[in-house]
Design brief:
Chain A: This is Regulator of G protein signaling 9 binding protein. Chain A: Belongs to the RGS7BP/RGS9BP family. The complex is a heterodimer. By secondary structure, chain A is an all-alpha fold. Chain A has two domains: about 1-185, Methane Monooxygenase Hydroxylase, Chain G, domain 1, CATH 1.20.58.70; about 190-240. Chain A has helices spanning about 1-30, 40-65, 75-105, 125-135, 150-175, 190-195, 195-200, 200-235. The termini of chain B are far apart. Classes of the chains: A mainly alpha, B mainly alpha. Chains A and B meet through α1, α3, α4, α5 and α6 of A and β2, α4, α5, α6 and α7 of B.
């Protein structure tokens, strides 16, 4: 029973980390553009802190599971697969953190004239950050040294993450938590993402259909207005 | 940049200088007062700001950098080609049109970068996202790459799918206009970093393609340890010693360097006079003095010069030790010659130089001789290396110093010519030697100049004669 719990827990934690990584990437893409703002920098800070927490939690859980010699072969294979997914996730996260430092340094906010790139993106990213933090609304603190202290923190965090990843690989090699990444087989075949559209459902397929749906709504609205006008005219004339 | 991108096993990558410059141009375009004129892009219902026409881009570049329109068009084209600006109407055609076609700036994350090359993992995630969005309707080449990636990074494919789904979900959180922009940005980025087949890859650095595939999938920490061990064992020379050597070398070669000392009779690149080259050709009846002097610097200088070798050979024949040089030349031929002829060449060398009672028997010590004879049984390119080295040092220690003291060399030195430096033209405004080869534009302006000056001189002399 414990083992099943362990697996489910791992998967949930990995999913959470995956979600935060995706949101973080989305936020970093907005850096340096006209979507950039004090709020965005704060969102980045909060998101990456959450990512780090999740990363540490994932790593501890997975290492403890992999060190356990009593688990069955299938379980072990599963944990190895999760480990590989986890390290790929950390790869993305590390690169994004490094890039966010670079871009944030290139485009400081607390200067008399900001030269943010006019990319056409003007909306705010608070909903993305809220999704990452799993909250309804984001709260912001007016932090005045977002350009300096925050970047120093970021640098420290990047070193931490890099160290963690090195340790992970060392563990995998040295401490006999033998994971051979190339031996892991994907559970999903090519094109698998198309099949489970049911669950992803409205969110992914919807992008084209959303436009269509909104046009239908507009037409429906006009039809109703015309009908109302006609009825009104008839009533008046009665 | 302050952060150290010294990834494990990776080298510290720098942003290519041309990209840094292009980035500066892009940032200059954002200036609120002097920057680009922005317009709005109208799609069916949405309005997206920050679009600009090709014509505006060219006008801005022409004004800002005070260049011709042609050059501005070229510069603008480069900005589009390298993805700093992407077209909105025909996204696959990365060309700057000087008309009303709309363009938009790319966000800094997606700027072309040699520091952050696009990874296979990212590309796989992008293709998976596109697959979901377009319900499997990818382009042919995208489908191929998708299956290739599926094979190549199969172990982490589940992550690819997970991340693709999550990225799509997070982009749903933004409003429609931003979503459209994001899609365009991503598409533009991947069109440049993974161009469709048949399109030039602008990031292709030719034969020295950096291999970015050795990422963390192969555990590189061991490689680092090995590399460090090897580095520790390397021979080191104290800088005081090697700097002394460097100083000596520089002093010795100072007079022989065409840049430092100028070349006689004149620098062909400037004066268009090829005398310097003809005088220093491989085989000339009389060599230049500098060349003969160089033969005394080191034995390699002498051997590398065809004429030097010839002279040395004449000297050795007088001393009856010419077989050494013949042997050395034959060994060089084996080392640098055709693969197919190696076996027969080695046979010849054995017959002529090494076999007991050979016509040109060379004097090699017994240990080297045994080793070489063993090696001849299985001949390869470097089988004669030890023997060649032995003979080389023999010549260097014995015959070479004597040659330098011999009459043959001294006569050569005395006979050697010192070319006269061509006199610089008396007329200071006849600037023909400054330009390496006159282009039609320059000859036209020169002709105009000369005419003008002639007229001026004529006018002056006429004026002068009045007084």
């Amino acid at each position: 029973f414990n083992l099943i719990m362990g697996k489910e827990e791992c998967k949930t934690m990995l999913d959470a980390l995956n979600k935060v990584t995706a949101c973080y990437r989305h936020l970093v893409i907005a850096l340096g553009s006209t979507s950039d703002s004090q709020n965005l920098r704060e969102e980045l800070k909060k998101t990456r802190k959450k990512a780090q927490e999740l990363a540490v939690a994932n790593r501890t859980k997975l290492t403890s599971l992999l060190k356990d010699k009593t688990i069955s072969k299938e379980d072990r294979a599963e944990y190895e697969r999760l480990w590989v997914l986890f390290s790929s996730c950390m790869e993305l996260l590390e690169v994004d953190m490094k890039r966010s430092l670079e871009i944030a340094q290139d485009f400081p906010l607390k200067v008399p004239t900001r030269h943010l790139i006019q990319t056409g993106m003007t909306g705010s990213t608070t909903t993305v950050a809220a999704r990452a933090m799993s909250v309804q609304n984001m709260k912001y603190e007016a932090d005045s040294n977002i350009d300096t202290a925050d970047l120093r923190d970021l640098q420290a965090e990047i070193t931490q993450v890099s160290q963690m990843m090195e340790e992970m690989e060392m563990k995998v090699q040295v401490m006999k938590v033998q994971v051979a990444p190339w031996a892991v087989e994907a559970k999903q075949e090519a094109g698998a993402e198309l099949k489970s559209n049911m669950s992803v459902g409205n969110s992914s397929v919807g992008s084209r259909e959303a436009g269509f749906a909104s046009i239908c709504a507009v037409i429906g609205f006009f039809v109703i207005v015309i009908v109302a006008l006609v009825l009104g005219y008839l009533v008046v004339n009665m | 940049m302050t952060i150290n991108t010294l990834a494990k096993g990776g080298c510290h990558r720098e942003q290519m200088a041309c990209f840094r410059k292009m980035e500066k141009v892009i940032v200059a375009m954002q200036d609120p007062d002097m920057g680009m004129k922005m317009r709005n892009q109208r799609l069916l219902i949405t309005v997206i700001p920050h679009a600009m026409t090709g014509h505006d881009i060219i006008t801005w570049l022409t004004h800002k950098y005070r260049i011709s329109e042609e050059e501005a068009l070229h510069l603008g084209n480069m900005l589009v080609k390298y993805g700093y600006i992407y077209p909105l109407k025909e996204p696959r055609c990365l060309v700057l049109r000087p008309d009303e076609s709309p363009y938009r700036f790319q966000t800094p994350y997606f700027w072309t970068s040699t520091r952050w090359p696009a990874s296979e993992l990212d590309y796989a995630i992008y293709l998976a996202k596109k697959n979901i969005r377009k319900q499997g309707e990818l382009m042919e080449y995208e489908k191929e790459r998708y299956s290739l990636l599926h094979k190549r990074i199969n172990h982490t494919w589940d992550f690819v799918v997970m991340q693709a789904r999550e990225q799509l979900r997070s982009s749903k959180q933004r409003r429609k206009a931003d979503r459209i922009v994001l899609e365009c940005q991503e598409q533009a980025y991947w069109l440049i970093n993974r161009p469709p087949p048949g399109v030039n890859n602008v990031l292709d650095t030719g034969l020295e393609r950096p291999n970015n595939f050795s990422c963390r999938v192969t555990l590189v920490s061991n490689f680092i340890i090995e590399a460090c061990r090897k580095a520790l064992g390397r021979n080191r020379v104290k800088s005081s010693i090697c700097l002394e050597g460097f100083l000596k070398y520089s002093e010795q070669y100072l007079n022989h360097d065409p840049i430092m000392q100028g070349c006689l009779p004149s620098n062909p690149w400037i004066s268009d006079d090829t005398a310097h080259w003809t005088m220093n050709a491989e085989i000339v009846p009389v060599p230049t003095r500098l060349r003969v002097e160089r033969w005394s610097f080191s034995f390699t200088e002498l051997l590398n010069d065809a004429m030097g070798r010839k002279e040395f050979m004449t000297y050795l024949e007088k001393e009856f030790s010419a077989e050494n040089l013949y042997f050395w030349q034959a060994c060089e031929d084996i080392r640098h010659g055709e693969n197919s002829k190696i076996v027969e060449k080695v046979e010849d060398v054995y017959k002529n130089f090494l076999a007991p009672g050979a016509a040109r028997w060379v004097n090699i010590d017994s240990k080297t001789m045994d080793k070489t004879l063993e090696g001849i049984k299985r001949p390869h390119r470097f089988v004669m290396d030890d023997a060649q080295m032995h003979i080389y040092f023999l010549m260097k220690k014995d015959s070479y110093p004597r040659y330098l003291k011999s009459d043959l060399y001294k006569n050569m030195l005395a006979k050697a010519i010192v070319p006269q430096e061509t006199k610089k033209s008396v007329f200071p405004f006849m600037r023909r030697q400054r330009h390496s080869s006159p282009s039609p534009a320059q000859t036209a302006t020169q002709a105009a100049e000369e005419e003008g000056l002639a007229k001026g001189a004529g006018a002056n002399s006429a004026a002068g004669s009045h007084f």
